[in-house]
What does this fold into?
Amino acid sequence: MERTNEKLIWAFAKALKERRKVVGLSQEELAFRSDLSTSYVSLLETRNRQPTLTVMDALARELGLTLAELVRLVESNMDG
It folds into this structure.
C-alpha cells in the first residue's frame, strides 16, 4: 500500500527549491551534481515525486547540508 502525506510532500518540495536557490544552483546543476535527471528534480520540486532516502542524502550533500539538516528544513516548512 502506498502512503502519501501531502503536507510532507509540499514541505519537502518547498525546502528543496528554496535551498537550491539560496546556494545559487539551477535544477540542471543540482541534478548533474546529484547524479539525477533534471526532470526528476523538477518533479520533486513540483510535488509529483517523493524522494528515497538515498536521493535525499545526495541532494542534501549538494545543497551543503547533512541529511538531518535537510529534514529539519522540511520539518520547519510543515509548521508554517
In short: The radius of gyration is 12 Å. The helical segments are 6-22, 27-34, 38-45, 53-62, 67-79. The longest helix spans residues 6-22.
